[in-house]
């Protein structure tokens, strides 16, 4: 039992010891982590800084084009510092209304500096603009990336994609640089999908640019309405375009635009310039503006024609059986691989023959400007000395080139000379730490060198701090005009004084404002130099012309023809009343009826006597006699009635009616007479 108790106590003590060791080890790691965290990124960067400066200073023979790549910046230290942008400009071709057209290219330039505070590792400046959409105009930028370097030291990067850009800075910007300033530039295209005018927006820090873009007009090209003309027309165009994250030159070839009828195949040979790479997948054809087809579909649809690609050359044959009377358009993309080339010139040569015409050769050539993209950065590095020489003007300080300085290391006595460049600056890198004396020893002739001659400027260069900039001013010499003796000049003769105090010529005429007088309108100048009205007509002698005879004067002073007739006022005369005009142009009264043949007079014939028949009916009253009139008309021929010789047809009809009424009255009277 005693041994079992001791074993239990021993096990308990071993367990407690293990726990204490574990706690001690865990606590030590915790303290070490706290110490590391308390150092922070600044202390860690200081260690890196000392190491980098030492290697840079010691290697005084290192080439200046070597780039120092720092470690990646800590994400925790990243800041967006677009407020450090100092300027932003947009350049491009606009129309008279200040608007860009579809596909217009613009150049965007800007600058930045550290005037608003130091730039730290991980800081970045963002560039943003309107991107592809269906409503408003947008920008598509050419892609690119370049390093920001200063005397071989990698300070940061400038990156641009189709949809945005960014300037980033690494550790070296705060380890090496002070007085940071830089520039950037890139190209972009403006597009819109709308038929309405609109604005594309560009935002870089505090700067906002609105770019007006014209809407896309509705297409009026109707392939079915195309006509044929036996005239050849073709051309070639090219333009730089950003697409799919790369930069391209888009080439466009148009053949037989007027759809002429062919007598032979169209042949061509297209040579793509160096610095570009042809992408066979980006070759597209349009026939009569129909739907686009790729190379494989073209070869399948038009087997008698051929397209051959050999590196950077295109050889094509378009059969007259397949393309007579048809318009041909093909387009291809070439990737830009040489960003240092200023431009690219593409040459295309070929031949064609239209029906009824001879074979004709043609050559199309197009030059496309290469895209521009870049950025730079300047500032002061440790061990660096800059001297800036200038002279004052009304427009501010102007750089002064051609001024020579002697620079002496005070500690070693070593001296060297340097002359300001076109920008008025002398830059010396990797100088030994210490004090230096600077003396100006020569300047251009038109500079007043005497004012600075003998002056000494002292500057100190430190190993672990940014370098120094020394700004020195010069004055221009005062120009002296040689003296000329005018003592005997007759222009100095004194003219006796005349008193014009009461001269009316001194009267002040009140000022009249003619600023809006139409007489001040400027009439555009017309060139009459070739006007026949300026022709000189030869002189003719009319001295003996009888037309010059003087006719004796006749006195007409008492001529009654000179009598003045009193004036009569007709202002209120009704005869002056203006009768409103009535439009009778459509009046049916103006209708012309065809003329009838003239009516011929006929002989009058006596009428046949009228017969009165009395019908006695039962139960009838004496006045209920029925009278039947027999033929009352004149005796007629077979064609027309015979009218009186002295009357018209109307008068004859009236006469017949009158005679008929007279006969009726006569019959009635006779009947009554018989009854009575």
TrEMBL record:
Residues 392-476 form the SpaA-like prealbumin fold domain. Its main location: secreted. SUPFAM superfamilies: Bacterial adhesins, Cna protein B-type domain. Residues 44-67 have a biased composition (Polar residues). Keywords: Cell wall, Peptidoglycan-anchor, Secreted, Signal. Residues 44-79 are annotated as: Disordered. The keyword Secreted applies. It is found in: Secreted, Cell wall. Transmembrane segments: none annotated. InterPro entries: Adhesion_dom_sf (IPR008966), Fibrogen-bd_dom1 (IPR011252), Ig-like_fold (IPR013783), SpaA_PFL_dom_1 (IPR041033). This is SpaA-like prealbumin fold domain-containing protein. GO terms for biological process: cell adhesion. Pfam families: SpaA (PF17802). It comes from Limosilactobacillus ingluviei DSM 15946. It comes from the Bacteria. The keyword Disulfide bond does not apply.
């Amino acid at each position: 039992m005693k041994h079992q108790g001791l074993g239990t106590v021993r096990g308990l003590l071993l367990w407690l010891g293990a726990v204490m060791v574990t706690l001690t080890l865990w606590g030590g790691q915790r303290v070490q982590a706290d110490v590391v965290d308390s150092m922070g990124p600044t202390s860690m960067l200081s260690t890196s800084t000392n190491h980098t400066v030492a290697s840079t200073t010691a290697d005084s023979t290192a080439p200046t084009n070597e780039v120092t790549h720092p470690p990646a910046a800590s994400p925790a230290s990243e800041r967006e510092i677009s407020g450090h942008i100092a300027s932003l400009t947009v350049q491009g071709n606009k129309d008279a209304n200040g608007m860009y057209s579809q596909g217009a290219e613009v150049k965007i330039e800007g600058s930045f500096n550290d005037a608003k505070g130091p730039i730290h590792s991980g800081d970045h400046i963002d560039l943003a603009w309107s991107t592809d959409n269906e409503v408003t105009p947008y920008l598509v930028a050419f892609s690119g990336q370049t390093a920001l370097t200063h005397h071989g030291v990698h300070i940061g990067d400038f990156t641009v994609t189709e949809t945005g850009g960014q300037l980033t800075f690494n550790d070296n910007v705060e380890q090496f640089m002070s007085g940071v300033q830089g520039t950037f530039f890139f190209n972009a295209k403006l597009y819109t999908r709308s038929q309405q005018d609109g604005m594309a927006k560009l935002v870089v820090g505090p700067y906002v640019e609105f770019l007006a873009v014209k809407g896309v007009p509705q297409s009026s090209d109707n392939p079915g309405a195309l006509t044929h003309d036996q005239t050849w027309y073709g051309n070639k165009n090219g333009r730089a375009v950003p697409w799919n994250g790369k930069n391209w030159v888009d080439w466009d070839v148009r053949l037989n635009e007027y759809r002429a009828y062919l007598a032979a195949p169209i042949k061509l040979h297209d040579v793509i310039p160096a610095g570009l790479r042809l992408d066979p997948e980006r070759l597209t054809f349009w026939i009569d503006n129909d739907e686009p087809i790729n190379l494989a579909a073209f070869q399948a649809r038009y087997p008698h024609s051929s397209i051959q690609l050999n590196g950077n050359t295109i050889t094509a044959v378009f059969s007259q059986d397949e393309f007579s009377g048809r318009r041909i358009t093909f387009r291809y993309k070439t990737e830009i691989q040489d960003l240092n080339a200023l431009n690219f010139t593409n040459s295309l040569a070929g031949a064609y023959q239209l029906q009824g015409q001879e074979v004709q050769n043609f050559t199309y050539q197009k030059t496309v400007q290469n895209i521009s993209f870049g950025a730079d950065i300047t500032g002061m590095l440790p061990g660096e000395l800059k001297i800036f020489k200038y002279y004052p003007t009304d427009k501010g300080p102007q750089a002064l080139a051609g001024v020579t300085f002697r620079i002496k290391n005070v500690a070693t006595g070593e001296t060297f000379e340097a002359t300001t460049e076109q920008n008025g600056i002398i830059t010396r890198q990797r100088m030994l730490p210490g004090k230096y004396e600077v003396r100006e020893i020569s300047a251009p002739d038109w500079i007043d060198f005497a004012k600075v001659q003998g002056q000494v400027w002292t500057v100190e260069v430190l190993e672990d701090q940014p370098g120094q900039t020394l700004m020195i001013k010069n004055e221009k010499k005062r120009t002296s005009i040689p003296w000329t003796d005018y003592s005997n000049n007759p222009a100095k003769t004194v003219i006796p004084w005349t008193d014009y105090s009461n001269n009316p010529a001194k009267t002040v005429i009140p000022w009249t404002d003619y600023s809006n007088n139409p007489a001040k309108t400027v009439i555009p100048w017309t060139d009459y130099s070739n006007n026949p009205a300026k022709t000189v007509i030869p002189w003719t002698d009319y001295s003996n012309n009888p037309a010059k005879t003087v006719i004796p004067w006749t006195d007409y002073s008492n001529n009654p023809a000179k009598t003045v007739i009193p004036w009569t006022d007709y202002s209120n005369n009704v005869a002056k009343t203006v009768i409103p005009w009535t439009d009778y142009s459509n009046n049916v009264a103006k209708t012309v009826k065809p003329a009838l043949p003239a009516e011929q007079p006929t002989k009058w014939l006596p009428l046949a006597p009228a017969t009165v028949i009395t019908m006695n009916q039962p139960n009838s009253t004496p006045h209920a006699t029925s009278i039947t009139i027999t033929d009352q008309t004149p005796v007629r021929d077979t064609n027309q009635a015979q009218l009186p010789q002295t009357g018209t047809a109307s008068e004859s009809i009236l006469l017949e009616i009158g005679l008929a009424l007279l006969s009726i009255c006569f019959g009635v009277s006779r009947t009554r007479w018989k009854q009575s």
